[in-house]
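ENTRY TYPE: paired fold submission
RECORD: A
CONTENT: sequence, then structure tokens
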Amino acid sequence: MDFMFSSRFPWRAEPNALSRSLTEMQAAGAAVIDLTESNPTRAGFSYRWDEIAAALGDPRSAVYEPSPAGLLEARRQVAAYYAARGAAVDPADIFLTASTSEAYSYLFKLLCDPGDEILVPAPSYPLFEHLAGLEAVRTVTYPLPFDHGWLLDVEEIRARLTPRSRAVVVVNPNNPTGAYLKAAEWRELSALCQRHGLAAISDEVFSDFAFEPDPQRQTTLAATEGPLVFVLSGLSKVAGLPQLKLGWIAVAGAHDVRRQAAARLEWIADTFLSVAAPAQWALPRLLTLGAEVRGQILARTARNLERLRAAATPETRVLPVEGGWYATVQVPRIRPEEDWALGLLARHRVLVQPGFFYDFPAEAFLIISLLPPPELFDEGARRLRMEFLATAGRGPE
């Protein structure tokens, strides 16, 4: 007799073809160039580990001070982080979490009853369905059209609203397309949210990694007026420290509804009390040191993006990307994306991700991480170009 588990686990757990091929190749001892690396601590960046360790050793951590929203001093540092970006956020509107994933969990509990709906973009990072499903919440995807760049079309969102819609997620900049929300797009989305009583959830973990300035860009929704807004970020990207597990929610919007939301969020947070004290007391120093790491990451990703563009051929192109850690390469639709990825792994020992992993609506796209060390990335780009040339019927250069 099969055991009856929760229906929150409807998805299959079997590895896909690319994962199986990679496992077999690694078991055989093959060296693979990983152009999917998303962990900055494994990408060769320089960290001041002695100072990080010292900050985490603050003796104040020895005393347990349960604070549902997070220690006030830590929340003040997050407020200072936003102040440096031109957004005035009250520490009372900041809630610390163990990660942005936990932040989503809090918000789905706050906003939704079982069966309610959250609108999420496509293409985007393939995590929302799982996070929502664990809260018995349904995701409804809205497409991001592409026209010389990725756009947010509010009419596409409006067309997918139902009486059970509760919030719209925007990822700013999007992962993996690297497109930022524009101020004009936010004005339209803000009006839509107010008209239909929807909250906006702005995932801004990559917002510090813009390649070029753009006056049309809505860099953050923190401190915005209008509809209820929740801005998410954390140390994983801001300081390149995913292992320290500290994220946050900044609540924005009209004062009355913001206070109502904050009171309920405090109740949710008080139920879990999940954020460890060492990371909270260390936060001022970690944010300061994080600026150095961000500079390294931005220099690396900009440099690797140029190398990737140089590897393109007339039959392939690197789509416009404004920021973040990833790039999208459009390849000929002569074979499925999965076959492109499997072929690159089998013939060139290069690991990339197919676009359908991120819910791209059509073929054929490959997702490339810009984090790997330069020498590794250059060799990976060279092998990509070899495959692009061979596919076009041209020999190696």
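RECORD: B
CONTENT: sequence, then structure tokens
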Amino acid sequence: MSEGTRLGIRTAQVGMLINTVLAAVKILAGVFGRSYALIADGVESTADIFSSLIVWGGLRIASRSADDAYPFGYGKAEALAAAAVALLLLAAAIGIAVESVREIVTPHHTPRPFTLAVLVGVILVKEVLFRRVVQIGTDVGSTAVRADALHHRSDVITSAAAFIGISIALIGGPGWESADDWAALAAATIIVYNGVGILRPAIHDLMDRAPGEEMRGRVAAAARGVPGVCAIEKLKVRKAGLGYYVDLHVQADPTLPLHAAHVLSGMVKSAIRQAVPEVAGVLIHMEPFDQR
């Protein structure tokens, strides 16, 4: 298991612990504070617990070495985990929206003021957690960890929306009791947007979409820099798990003996992996160089 995978798993574990505490606090505060927006926020945090668990499992599976059953490795499990997190987020948003509408049409009491203090604490904790997790996800190149980070940011959004809604209900007085329910409905819309944003890159990884030109350029430069390489073509790069896999045609002197061509291909592989540490595997096809 790579250090990046270990770091991603530890991040998911910390997120699970924090979300468990926050979910309990928000649901209890929502019940006793008469705020459905806060209850909905707690439900979203409960979904966060499962999302972190999915990320944890996805990273553990993705770290397995290739075997006879999966000769190309288990890296796709990381992207599957990210997609599952996105779908879980979308499902939570739909549930919140349905319950918000039900609460809007049902008369109820004004939320209690103490719920605002609870929300301020939640917003601060989750924003710090979001910034930490998204940085780790970017550093290790994990779509699943970045998806988990966006799940934390969605929690910040729902908490902020609940804060605004409860504040309006308290300031407006009688007749404004449903303001926090409208806030929960607005938050659900934002969560749907974030869920789609998480799902898109996960689908890209599952469909082997090529990475940006910056990654391809680094690989190409490393290959061309090896003595004996006359030209390269048909460069393909795809992402699986936390690593990238490269397929490349290398053109060399047509008179080069087979053993020397084999050695040259090994040099190209080493150069690419040294220049681009994110690359986990390289497949080289040697071809004779044609100057025409």
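NOTES ON RECORD B: Helices lie at 3-32, 36-62, 76-104, 114-140, 143-172, 179-206, 213-224, 258-275. The first strand starts at residue 231 and ends at 240.
STATUS: closed
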